[in-house]
Prior knowledge:
Distance between the termini: 36 Å
Order of helices and strands: HEEEEEEEEEHEEEHEEE
Helix content: under 10%
Number of domains: 2
Amino acid sequence: xxxxxILISAMSLNSFAATLKYSCKAPDLxxxxxxxxxxxxxxxxxxxxxxxxxxxxxxxxxxTKAGNNQEPKELNLxxxxxxxxxxxxQFTKKPYYGLKLQDKSKKVLALLNxxxxxxxxxxxxxxxxxxxxSTCRLQYLKTCAFGEVYRDVFEDSSIKAERLGEVxxxxxSFEAIVNTQxxxxxxxxxxxxxxxxxxxxEVDGGNTxxxxxxxxxxxxxxIEDSDLxxxxxxx
Length: 235
């Protein structure tokens, strides 16, 4: 439980930055331990330029051992943390992204070079020490359409924000109905959303909490201590 609390605290210090989608496909080479994979990760902005942090995620892969007539095996590598780094290399015509993830024991290690031109440049080491290789591509890296923090909604010129007044709203952050400010958000493409955020010190202690919902009332982003998290609407 203590480790989980530390993890949540660390995540709260990093605003939601982007959604990463990747895919990996290995050549059909029977003499190589290989893997296929695809997935979507939430990554968080770091103080270092062109680097993101990844917290407590998992990778689902289809692993095939070297040899003839080997059956693929589904593996779920869980409890991984690490980083995503944009790499400007003199050996490649364009930048690529390096995704490095490992578990707490450091026995499981994933080094995915997304869009690196050479084949089999990505590799995963499983807990039994076996090394699998693949070729991985970056499908997209998209940032949250509402910004990274609460004030971005009002400061981004591409977003129209209209305050509609005070309403009572149930917020999971407090597990209670609290008084919130409702704001109508219209993105550049015309899609409309509703933001409900706290604004009274006796409710949130001077911080801002809340949610952003789509037209059907589905939560598409949360506000935690002014940071926008769990964003489902990207640009």
